[in-house]
Design goal:
DNA-binding; homodimer; mainly alpha; 9 helices
DNA sequence: TTATAAATACCGACCATCGGTTTGTAAATG
DNA sequence: CATTTACAAACCGATGGTCGGTATTTATAA
């Protein structure tokens, strides 16, 4: 099966190169000519693999989002989760990457704009968000089972708050606002306080 | 000064029409031909007023953001602020508008993407965010002065939290996720709890 | 006030490049 | 050996942007 193998190889080349270019030049400025030049493929070849520029970009987005979700799920599964550090660290580490434009969010952004033109893109991004919430919830439920988080906490609510705040932090970082009042530390403290309502106000043990 | 007057009139026509078209068709699908057709202006005329499509879009964004900030500041100044309802209502009302694409965020989105191509756009959005935080802070400080919010609250921190969460809510709404666990009500409760750390856990009075 | 020079508001033909289509061909497959 | 697959390249309309031109104000000076 040499043909099938080659197909996959070319497809990966196409996707990887496009992602590279998007991160380098931004979505709007990445043209088919750029992609042709760097991959060495002809326009005909590209259209043999995807139905157009839009679909190509959606495929890149899809792959990247899946990758991101997987790494978040891994962070939740890691042992450090017992001390709440896993997911928190995942967020902390993603922020600098955002600032240097080396993250998914640029892709998300693109499809937020384009969602009227590209309805499928909206669904992909929404699914990504829901998946992230589900992972957060899993983290909380696990914590409750192991007794680290009191069972009185509403897991759904806490998971959404967690995701909402981390989403907000990412966005804020993306638009280049450097906060003085509310950063990862405060985020962490707030989540702790929310997850342990029996402890009053103060800073967490972490 | 008839010429100056005409200049302003044409400029407004250009800006208003462009905004209209962006809200109708989205950023990427709004072409210069569309704008020419609806304004009745020639291409030459448009380029006499702006240096290109990008600058035109930035100008629209700038005007819209300023408008939004002003209305938020008005909400903070309104009498209802004494019961915390002003800013909260402003957010609650903006969410449905977002879902029908009739809000600023589409414009913000565009420039989040394009910020590498269009450095000025990034600054505009960041300024918008900072202004919103400042307004939130003003709201909290006013509350502290009138005794509704205890002076022990860190106004900077609380303002950033407020803005971060409302930004996150807007984004979530924009990508089309309908939450069950954390909506305006929970947002409101959390802010209340944060602003009144001496009251434990429960729902607000509102 | 009027003649005229300069600046402004606007037009539309022209251009390179864009995303996308089509026709063609060499290699793999069955 | 017929068919499907992988790729190429010439072509297409539309797009964003440029440029030389014209008509109308405005500024200036006689």
């Amino acid at each position: 099966m040499k043909q099938e193998e080659r197909r996959e190889q070319t497809m990966n080349l196409l996707l990887d190169t496009t992602e590279e270019l998007i991160l380098e030049k931004g979505c709007t400025k990445t043209t088919l000519s750029d992609i042709m030049a760097r991959t060495g493929l002809s326009k005909g070849a590209i259209f043999h693999y995807v139905s157009g520029k839009d679909e190509l970009f959606v495929k890149v987005l899809e792959a990247k989002l899946e990758e991101t979700n997987t790494s978040f799920m891994d962070a939740v599964d890691a042992p450090a989760v017992k001390e709440f550090d896993g997911p928190m660290n995942a967020i902390a580490q993603s922020l600098p990457k955002l600032e240097s434009r080396k993250d998914v969010s640029n892709l998300i952004m693109m499809y937020l704009i384009g969602k009227s033109d590209q309805p499928e893109a909206a669904g992909i991004v929404a699914d990504f968000y829901r998946q992230a919430v589900a992972t957060s919830k899993k983290w909380i439920v696990t914590g409750q089972e192991s007794g680290v988080i009191p069972s009185s906490v509403n897991a759904d609510q806490a998971a959404e708050l967690f995701e909402l705040l981390s989403f907000g932090l990412r966005m804020r970082s993306l638009i280049g606002v450097r906060s003085t009042g509310f950063g990862i530390q405060e985020f962490s403290e707030l989540i702790m306080r929310t997850l342990r309502p029996d402890r009053q106000g103060g800073a967490p043990t972490s």
